[in-house]
Amino acid sequence: MSKATEQNDKLKRAIIISAVLHVILFAALIWSSFDENIEASAGGGGGSSIDAVMVDSGAVVEQYKRMQSQESSAKRSDEQRKMKEQQAAEELREKQAAEQETPEAT
């Protein structure tokens, strides 16, 4: 029985030593956290900040549609201008042809 009580005493001593060491460890961690000087910084020490703009996807879509509309209206007006130029050129040719025929008939 003396062997069993001796082992129990060793076990109790080991548990007590472990508990005391844990308490000391936690006390050291808590104490070191009080000494820590934490400064609020913008992503690091001495770095430059980035100017960023948040983009609204709805506004981008509206702008894209507006640009597409402007491009299509510009194409339409360009086509209309070309058609008018062709009509004017055709009328001029017809007028010149009519003038050439008129002096010959006289």
Fold and architecture overview:
InterPro entries: Tol-Pal_TolA. The chain crosses the membrane at residues 12-31. Residues 65-106 are annotated as: Disordered. Keywords: Membrane, Transmembrane, Transmembrane helix. Residues 73-98 have a biased composition (Basic and acidic residues). The chain is mostly helical and 106 residues long. It has a domain at 75-105. 78% of the residues lie in helices and 0% in strands. The protein contains 2 helices and no strands. The chain has helices at 2-35, 57-105. The radius of gyration is 47 Å and the shape is rod-shaped. The model has no long low-confidence stretch (mean pLDDT 87).
Structural class: mainly alpha
Q: What is the H-and-E element order?
A: HH
Count of helix runs: 2
Largest sheet: none
Overall form = rod-shaped
Strand content: under 5%
| Quaternary structure state of the chains depicted | single chain
Mean pLDDT: 87
Model regions low in confidence, pLDDT < 50 over at least 5 residues: none
- CA-CA gap between termini: 153 Å
Q: Helix amount, in percent?
A: over 70%
> Got a strand count?
0
* Cα gyration radius (Å): 47 Å
